[in-house]
Amino acid sequence: MYIQNSYQADENRYSCGMQYNRCGKSGVLLPKVSLGFWHNFGSVDPFERSRAITHYAFDHGITHFDLANNYGPEYGSAEETLGRLMDMDFRPYRDELFISTKAGYDMWPGPYGEWGSRKYLMASIDQSLKRMHLDYVDLFYSHRFDPDTPMEETLQALVDIVRAGKALYIGISRWPLEALKFAYTYLKERDVPLLIFQDKLNRLDREPIDNGTLDFCHQNGIGFISFSPLAQGLLTDRYLNGIPKDSRMAQEKFLKHDMLTPELLSQLKTWNTEAEAEGKTLAAKSLSWILEQQGVTSVIVGASSTQQLAKNITF
Fold it and tell me: Is 0.90 surpassed by the pTM of this model?
């Protein structure tokens, strides 16, 4: 796929129907659909394809790009891809973009390359900014809860990252509810309020609803963003008639064969029939279901092509 070297964003990008939702009680508005860089933006992926996907996303009002330090593969390469995109295409639009990254999972060898220590988080944000060719990120997350590091150490590092001007806002991903409550209070008392909480939420995995996390976020003015909203493709039409040879499930990559039980397949077909009766796809109906939950700000979708992204933002 050939793309001209000089990218000019579509002048109608904010009038094409993308909805923007307020993130908690903050001044930030996020698109209902955000673009995730977890897959398809690494060094193993064709750069021009990644480039085309980001162009299509921004041209259709997707202003939020979600990354993490170890997204790739290889680790760090998704951020490096964004760095190339910033230099080639998006530098003139930096103030229209809301870019997030995270640290928490394994990134480099040794005892300081993962979890939630101050040393790891401080090193990680500096490395991420260098890879992405940015002076700051809009949002920096603690990517996972560290049961062995004092929460005060992790949270104070996040506060100091904001105060150093390396991030504008702080987010937390997948912390237990009680730890989330502690973080909310700690950050609020230091005038660096928690902007958003990221967790897995979809029609098959409703844990943030069931355990009270989503309600806590809503009641306390914290935004909520869902990753894996289509359950790695289960909540699309991809597996309704068997397991495609080129699918993640066929490759046992993030999805296992035994997940697609007869009971689940029956449920998926029922949901698909209901969606078709409304003139929608199963994927569109599944994304709408998440956004209808009180307190949800946005959903993060991945895409391996512009065609796939187009399907996931039309609902």
Answer: yes
